[in-house]
Amino acid sequence: MHLKVAASFLLLLALINVHQTEEISRDSRIIGGLDANAGQYKFAAAITVTTETSRFFCGGSLLTNQWIITAGQCVNGATLFTIQIGSNKLTEDDTNRVIVATSEYVIHPEFNPTTLENDVGLIKLRIPVEFTNYVNTIYYADSTPVGNSTSLVAIGWGQTSDDDPELSEHLQGVQVVSISNEECRFTYGSQLTDNMLCVAGSYNEGTCIGDTGSALIQIVSRGAQVHTGIASFVSGNGCQSTDPSGYTRTHPYLDWIKSIILA
Ligand SMILES: *[C@@H]1O[C@H](CO)[C@@H](O)[C@H](O)[C@H]1NC(C)=O
């Protein structure tokens, strides 16, 4: 089956397409989501990435007071990250917002920007952030393998439609369900590896451009939020197609993550 995933980067509020290869692309969408409540996703980071040649937007998640997990494509070649935590809003005033800048990151040594294998990266803050009612971490250490039809939540500030290239001002969250990799290969073919995970909504819910790097969350007992995936790719048929959204699974990378952030 011919694999087609559209590659796109978001230049803050202006869209440019960066087709890495003819066949693969990278981006993701929150389509069909709802505004998050204040403090609902305290770990969510809005990241503006600067490289030597571009500037684009990604999501990320606070794993500790000094480390953020995001996609490998969001740190690859980065020279600066400007990171906002503590606010659901991107630009409107919010006294709970913390803004930090850093240039330090670790990319997975086997990240492949063409196939998006091992699409995981870690950003180190210069100074640990202080936890508040709006800033805190997401659980990751007890992340278990995600089964074939598990209820999950996808979040992000990405585009809410294919036609509007602007980010969402307000953080969005949407209920999705994991699908088996076997089923997802009908859309993405053999390029979908075991370390990737696909989710689908009840209709076309999922990720879009600007959501890349954002968390896929499993809500476990007492409402605890566990990081289970990193937004990685969407179908070349568009965010609003009913094709599944692609994530990097968190669980296969736990040892690698711990070896860096707990070192
Ligand atoms: C998920 O589905 C695949 C293919 O249908 C199957 O081989 C696998 O055992 C299933 N995994 C779980 C955890 O049920």
UniProtKB/TrEMBL annotation:
Q: Which residue ranges does the record assign to the Peptidase S1 domain? A: 30-262
High-level lineage: Eukaryota, Metazoa, Ecdysozoa, Arthropoda, Hexapoda
Q: Which UniProt keywords apply?
A: Disulfide bond, Signal
Concerning InterPro entries, the annotation shows: CLIP_Serine_Protease, Peptidase_S1_PA, Peptidase_S1_PA_chymotrypsin, Peptidase_S1A, Trypsin_dom
> Which Pfam family, just one, is annotated for this protein?
Trypsin
Q: Does the keyword Disulfide bond apply?
A: yes
Gene Ontology BP terms: proteolysis
CDD domains per record:
Tryp_SPc
* Protein name, UniProt field: Peptidase S1 domain-containing protein
